[in-house]
Amino acid sequence: xxxxxxxxxxxxxxxxxxxxxxxxxxxxxxxxxxxxxxxxxxxxxxxxxxxxxxxxxxxxxxxxxxxxxxxxxxxxxxxxxxxxxxxxxxxxxxxxxxxxxxxxxxxxxxxxxxxxxxxxxxxxxxxxxxxxxxxxxxxxxxxxxxxxxxxxxxxxxxxxxxxxxxxxxxxxxxxxxxxxxxxxxxxxxxxxxxxxxxxxxxxxxxxxxxxxxxxxxxxxxxxxxxxxxxxxxxxxxxxxxxxxxxxxxxxxxxxxxxxxxxxxxxxxxxxxxxxxxxxxxxxxxxxxxxxxxxxxxxxxxxxxxxxxxxxxxxxxxxxxxxxxxxxxxxxxxxxxxxxxxxxxxxxxxxxxxxxxxxxxxxxxxxxxxxxxxxxxxxxxxxxxxxxxxxxxxxxxxxxxxxxxxxxxxxxxxxxxxxxxxxxxxxxxxxxxxxxxxxxxxxxxxxxxxxxxxxxxxxxx
Length: 460
Prior knowledge:
Elements: E1 4-5, H1 6-13, E2 16-18, E3 24-25, E4 29-30, E5 41-43, H2 56-62, E6 66-69, E7 77-79, H3 83-98, E8 103-108, H4 113-125, E9 130-132, H5 142-147, E10 156-160, H6 168-175, E11 180-183, H7 191-194, H8 197-209, E12 216-220, H9 224-227, E13 237-241, E14 248-255, E15 261-267, E16 270-275, H10 283-296, H11 301-307, E17 319-322, E18 328-332, H12 338-350, E19 355-360, H13 370-382, E20 387-391, H14 394-400, E21 404-407, H15 410-418, E22 425-430, H16 438-446
Parallel strand pairs: 4-5, 5-6, 6-7, 8-10, 8-11, 9-10, 11-12, 12-13, 13-14, 18-22, 19-20, 19-22, 20-21
Antiparallel strand pairs: 1-3, 2-7, 14-15, 15-16, 17-18
Helix pairs in contact: 4-10, 6-8, 12-13, 13-14, 15-16
């Protein structure tokens, strides 16, 4: 973050300072007091269950020098009516001051946003200092927090943009109009919130509509709803995918014994081989999207392809881990929809092992089609795994038929797995975040029977 005094911040956000207005913020803003850095700003948001102002002292102990909130705290505080709106105004102001020499990239899609953002960070940081979204901080709070991490040396700012309703991405592009906008795909994630794929496409298309003047749209060539977004911009368009007409085309995908893909990226001007350290052949498409952004930013195909293997993937995205019993854990527990679950199951099938076990939880926000979608995924899983463990989702177990094991909750899943795993087994964990299958991963990795002992069983 660029250095700003509290007086300057107050002027930007329309607040008043309680305390020393000469105190200067020199480090990023945070919402979690435990994550504060020396010189940082703690943003106190009042939520449904937690009041951030109660953690101002904690943030100060971690290094924060000031608070942005709706009432005074023990630290010097910029007091505003709406801390969320003030955070957004501050982020927009900071990026506007840095705009000369800064290229902003927005990324959205029903699946693959975070992996693509991580691949983008690898490609762009190979050319110049880059700031990218941490994890999946992709909403009205996470995007401005990422924007405030940009400084005078930053040349690329990569912003993952999520959506739950029409207008969400438009609000984010109003904070900063991206120079490059990536739309990966239009799937079923948030179908329950938005109602139809057409509505999801409309919501994702807001990124293309919100591009800066002359900005480049990078669109998935394999998805008709995404390609149709060409009509939303008068600026340049680059496409990626397996389709013959893609500007960055994925060819000759071959997985290794751990389902990590090698492939070729081809453009009109040449080709380059890539070998990713990530699990799943679908990652080749995310890599092609990142490469297309690199081309738009002036990075050569060869340089982009060489940078891709340096990617550091966010947690709980098809992470391979070795268990003490000799089994392999494939942790994809961060989130799930039918499309991403099928991709994870394909990866499980491609990994060489003695026995494949798919531990699947609920896929949330699927609307009226939820039961049908879960049954279908159960059937898909039964064709790719030796055992399908359905955690708290009866329709999924029904769909898997004879290969299904129906369990009530995460505690039961850990107990079942501990009693049956052996060397050579491969275990996939996949569900929406609300199912918290990362707890199962933590329990299996720790080997402790007490990890989930204090959590109530969840008999959905």
